[in-house]
Amino acid sequence: MTDKELLSIAIKEMEKSYSPYSNCKVGAALLCKNGRVFTGANIENAAFSPTICAERVAIFKAVNEGERDFLKIAVVGEKDGNVNGIFAPCGVCRQVLREFCDDNFQIVLGESENDFKVVTLKDLLPYSFSPENVR
Ligand code: THU
Predict the structure, then answer these.
(1) Given CB 3.0 to 4.6 Å as the disulfide criterion, which of 25, 48, 106, 110 pairs with 7?
(2) pLDDT value of residue 113
(3) Which is the closest atom of ligand 1 to the Cα of 52?
(4) Which domains, ranges and CATH numbers included, belong to the chain?
């Protein structure tokens, strides 16, 4: 699957966002090494802190389905219906990714299907605290 194809799945996933408080719709598509794709959209809450990001929805769905080997994730977000720059994963999502992915894991940061950049987890989370630290 190409980066562009994965990103187009993430873009479609934004429709499933439940975000009445921020009006930010975020979509994620996580590609497993075996080819399966898990999607996620952000789900907000009136108490705010229970809100969960699109990336973690996708990761937790995958892990709950028995998958732990991931190749890359595409992420895209919009505010008030407009994509206005990239939505890079928040710090909590970066740490959750680090639980299952190594430094070379790729993150496709999209603005549109034809406008994206690819970075690594090491770019986003250098000097990370990882499972190796506590095993
Ligand atoms: N959000 C995500 O889903 N992923 C990110 O990487 C950043 C933020 C969501 C959480 C919240 O629903 C909204 O965007 C505004 O913070």
Answers:
(1) 110
(2) 83
(3) 10
(4) 3-133 (3.40.140.10)
Q: Contact 29/7 with Cβ under 8 angstroms? A: yes
Q: Verify whether residue 67 is a known catalytic residue.
A: no
User: Crossing angle for the helix pair 91-100 and 54-64, nearest 10 degrees?
Assistant: 20
Ligand 1 atom nearest to 89, measured from its CA = 6
Which is catalytic among the residues 44, 55, 78, 111? 55
Q: Report the nearest-CA residue for atom 2 of ligand 1.
A: 53
Measured between alpha carbons, how far is 40 from 17 in angstroms, rounded to an integer? Answer: 8
In ligand 1, the atom with minimum distance to the C-alpha of 51 is: 12
Q: How far apart are CA 105 and CA 122, in angstroms?
A: 8
**Which pLDDT tens digit goes with each residue over 105-130?**
999 999 988 899 999 999 999 999 99
Task: Tally helices (H) and strands (E) across the chain.
Answer: 4, 5
**CA of 58 relative to ligand 1 center, distance in Å:** 13
